[in-house]
Design a protein that fits this description.
- The complex is a heterodimer of chains A (423) and B (166).
- Chain A has 423 residues and is α/β, with parallel strands linked by helices.
- Chain A has helices at 18-23, 28-36, 39-48, 61-66, 91-98, 100-114, 128-144, 174-181, 210-222, 224-229, 262-269, 303-308, 327-341, 347-364, 370-383, 390-404, 406-415; strands spanning 77-82, 118-123, 159-164, 205-209, 239-246, 252-257, 260-261, 279-283, 292-293, 300-301, 317-322.
- In chain A, the strands form three sheets. A five-stranded mixed β-sheet of chain A has the order 6-5-11-8-9, covered by helices on one side. In chain A, strands 3-2-1-4 form a four-stranded parallel β-sheet, with helices on both faces. In chain A, strands 7-10 form a two-stranded antiparallel sheet.
- The radius of gyration of chain A is 22 Å and the shape is globular.
- Chain A starts with 17 loop residues before the first helix and ends in an 8-residue tail after the last helix.
- Chain B is built from seven helices and four strands.
- Chain B is 44% helix and 11% strand.
- In chain B, α2 (24-35) packs antiparallel against α3 (40-50) and α3 (40-50) packs across α4.
- Chain B folds into two domains: 4-61, no CATH class; 75-155, Glutaredoxin.
- Chain B has helices at 4-15, 24-35, 40-50, 54-61, 83-87, 90-101, 143-155, and strands at 75-80, 114-119, 131-133, 136-138.
- The chains are: A alpha/beta (423), B alpha+beta (166).
Chain lengths: 423, 166
């Protein structure tokens, strides 16, 4: 059993109350920071801890905070991205249901670090339960003076609100999220300017994922060296919540050290493959990552190791497929998702993804031709010209289908049917 | 006719907000809670409240999965069709729902009880295959469990609950 940091207070059947959180050291980091530390000290700890964004992009939070200049205008904002819509990902929901005050404290600390006195949690409508928990717990924290006006009697105030999304995958993209918050159609904007310079309502805005912000109280309380020592691989830091789903015995969220082996995640923590199933492939971090096959079954799951192997940790949503899964069918499903969720703003994404979807559908249903593979590959290259990371995400999974499972694609075309159906 | 009381409530909300536009989705949800969907009259009213062009509201409203521009049933069933639910048998559930309610995806039953809509990954992959009924999740589903759920909803034995906190 590895140390449980983010899940330290997790209960099997209910949330952690404010008093329980407080008893276990909660809000101590915030109290100490607002009373004794300068804001740049908080920024420095987060920087030194190499806390990288857990929402998929892996950008170091400390570096992001330093891009808010000292003389930046007020008000400044901290926005929490709880829009978690990456297929296979459900860690933010579990984190909020397990220990909401961890996130609230993390947001207040992030706010203190950049001089922001207003925080907003942007949450997807499917997580109505989590939204209500947060609203209730925010009120409780305000009553106690832990957030709100004059945090712990200091001169720092932190107002926090929950904002419900209307529900659309693209809202999870940072710039699109800020558009959604401002009551605009949530199209991504291509930086610069970055939101830390010109963000919500034109003001400096720090945008972070739920899991990243939940790490902050622990980092501030125990220090950067401690946080780095949690990881198993050199250069990595902290723990990671792995959401495992698919053909395993115990799908769920597991907090494990950064750098844990993929095989260990699946076999030890997720209870191994279902009876009768053998591992064929997995997506290591959501729909926008490439398939990992047996070749990398023992790979260390951290940002750098995966990157070196040509992969991405993404959100660490490990979706496991077995030998009975048709990979063309799985990829078709993912491409249909991208096709439906594209915001339609730029041409490569709007036109390119449905084009690929159509050709893959024909291959899957036995109407494919060899030439389709070249056409799809060419179109995937066009997708990389899109405005935001959405279309490249779709291209990644299709390209990895052709790389890892070309024989399966060819079998569909030659047999003029899906080899996994009607056997 | 739009309720005067709701109009007053929404106006007050707008007047006390520093950035009224940020209330757009909240206001639409409040209207949907009352009327089920955002009809043309309400859309015009929201445009007036927020000093926005009705066309702009329309393009935002039609963009979101949880904003309805047409009447929906008492129970809106969102069927997750993303990859983990697909892998764990989601297609069977969808076919079962269409067959037993005798409607296609995107349609509402003639008695106004059920609407079926597809939705992308709802973040309950650990309980796949899963659906939402009025935003409440039901996971680890089989056609048998789904049949029982539909019966309970039809007979009123299961109220669509406020119990979101589990």
């Amino acid at each position: 059993m590895y140390p449980q940091i983010l899940f330290g207070n997790r209960k099997p059947d209910r949330i952690t109350t404010l008093s329980e959180y407080r008893q276990n050291g909660g809000y101590q980091g915030l109290e100490k920071a607002v009373k004794e530390s300068r804001s740049e000290e908080v920024r420095q700890i987060i920087f030194d801890a190499v806390l990288r964004g857990r929402g998929g992009a892996a950008f170091p939070m400390g570096s992001k905070m330093t891009t808010v200049p000292d003389n930046a205008p007020y008000p400044r904002y901290v926005v929490c991205n709880a829009d978690e819509m990456e297929p296979g990902t459900f860690k933010d929901r579990v984190l909020i249901h397990a220990d909401p005050h961890q996130l609230i404290e993390g947001m207040a600390l992030a706010g203190y670090g950049i001089g922001a006195e207003k925080g907003i949690i942007f949450i997807r409508p499917e997580y109505e339960g989590a939204a209500r928990i947060l609203e209730r717990e925010i009120d409780l924290a305000k009553e106690k003076g832990f957030i709100g006006k004059g945090v712990f009697g200091s001169g720092f105030s932190f107002d926090l609100n929950v904002h419900r999304s209307g529900g659309r995958y693209i809202c999870g993209e940072g710039t699109a999220l800020l558009n959604a918050l401002s009551g605009n159609r949530p199209n991504p904007k291509k930086p610069p300017p970055h939101p830390t310079e010109i963000g919500l309502w034109g003001q400096p805005t720090l945008l972070q994922n739920v899991e990243t912000l939940s790490c902050v109280p622990h980092v501030v309380r125990h220090g950067a060296e401690w946080f780095k020592s949690l990881a198993l691989t050199p250069g990595s830091a902290g723990t990671k919540i792995f959401c495992v789903s698919g053909k395993v015995n115990r799908p769920g969220c597991y907090e494990l050290p950064m750098g844990v082996k993929l095989s260990e995640v699946i076999e030890t923590h997720a209870g191994g493959m279902l009876p009768g199933s053998t591992f064929k492939a997995c997506l290591p971090g959501g729909a926008s990552t490439a398939y990992i096959t047996e070749k990398f079954y023992h790979i260390e799951m951290d940002y750098d190791t995966l990157k070196k192997a040509g992969h991405r940790l993404g959100t660490a949503a490990v979706m496991v497929f077995d030998q009975q899964t048709c990979m063309v069918g799985a990829t078709l499903n993912l491409v249909e998702f991208f096709s439906r969720e594209s915001c339609g703003w730029c041409t490569p994404c709007r036109e390119g993804i449905p084009y690929i979807r159509d050709l893959l559908y024909r291959i899957e249903t036995g109407q494919g031709e060899r030439s389709f593979m070249t056409m799809i590959t060419t179109m995937c290259r066009h997708l990389w010209n899109a405005y935001c990371a959405f279309a490249p995400g779709a291209a990644t999974v299709v390209e990895s289908l052709f790389k890892e499972f070309e024989d399966e694609v060819v079998a569909h075309i030659e047999e003029k049917r899906c080899p996994f159906k009607d056997k | 006719m739009f309720s005067e009381e709701l109009k007053v409530e929404l106006t007050r909300k707008v007047q006390t907000s520093e950035h009224p536009r940020e209330l757009l989705v909240d206001i639409i949800f409040k209207i949907q809670d009352r009327y089920g969907y955002l009809d043309d009259e309400s859309l015009e009213l929201v445009a007036g409240l927020l000093n926005m062009d009705p066309l702009e509201i329309e393009q935002i409203a039609t963009f979101y999965t949880f904003v309805f521009r047409e009447p929906v049933g008492k129970y809106v069933i969102h069927v997750c069709d993303s990859v983990m639910c697909w892998l764990m048998g989601g297609e069977t559930l969808r076919e079962f729902l269409c067959r037993s309610l005798n409607i296609q995806m995107g349609e509402t039953t003639p008695d106004g009880l059920f609407t079926l809509l597809p939705v992308c990954c709802i973040g309950y992959c650990d309980r796949a295959p899963a659906i939402l009924v009025n935003k409440k999740v039901y996971g680890h589903l089989t056609p048998e469990k789904l049949e029982q759920l539909l019966e309970e909803l039809k007979s009123g034995a299961r109220k669509e609950t406020e119990d979101h906190l589990e």
